[in-house]
Each structure stands twice: as structure tokens, then as C-alpha cells.
Amino acid sequence: MKLILSAGLAFGAIAIAQAPAAAQDAEAPTTDVADEAERLDPDAVRCERRAVTGSRARRIRVCMTNAQWETLRRDGNRDATDTIDNGTRIGLRGG
Where does the signal peptide begin and end (predicted)? Predict the structure, then answer.
């Protein structure tokens, strides 16, 4: 009986603690339209935090325009595809 009562009290406490967060989410205005427009603008600057190679905790902030991020993504995908295709032509197997 004590176990059931304790579980009920714990669940009730969690539900009460979550209520203010849910109320804040409902009242917060959404800016998804503005964010989407900014992401589509090639001249808008966007920053990302990137991990530093060789470090578990260190991060750096990299800022580029959306056009530069797209070029970086496209070049990386092309390089990965070339690596896979070249390995297949030579007869290397993955795995």
C-alpha cells in the first residue's frame, strides 16, 4: 500500500511540475515563418557550434552565410560519394 501511495504522490508531483512548462509553451508565440524565411535567404548568416577534432569538450562557433553552408554540405556529399565510388571500382569491400 505504501508503494502505491508513494508512486501516486511522485506521479502527482511530476504532473504539477510539468503544468507551468506546458502553459508557457501554449502562450509562446511561434516564429517558425520568420525562421524559415531566414533559412531560405542565401545571404543570411547562421552560426553553428562544431566539435573540435581531438577534444571531447571543446567546441567552436562557426558562422557562414546559408549559401556557404550549402556549398560546404554539397562538397562534403560529393567527396563522400567519390570515395565510395572509387572504392567500389577498385574492388574494395566495406565492412
Answer: 1-21
pLDDT digits (tens, 9 = 90+) for 39-73: 889 999 999 999 999 999 999 999 999 999 999 99
Residue with cell 569538450: 57
Beta bridge partners of 60: 50
Which grid coordinates are listed for 31?
516564429
Contact 49, 61 (CB under 8 A): yes
Q: Within 10 Å of residue 57's Cβ, how many Cβ atoms?
A: 6
Pairwise CA distance, residues 21 & 27, whole Å: 10
Angstrom CA distances, 74 to 18, 59, 65, 82, stand at 42, 23, 14, 12
What pTM value is reported for the model?
A: 0.52
Where along the chain do its domains lie?
A: 39-90
What is the spatial distance between Cα 76 and Cα 71, in angstroms, rounded to a whole number?
8
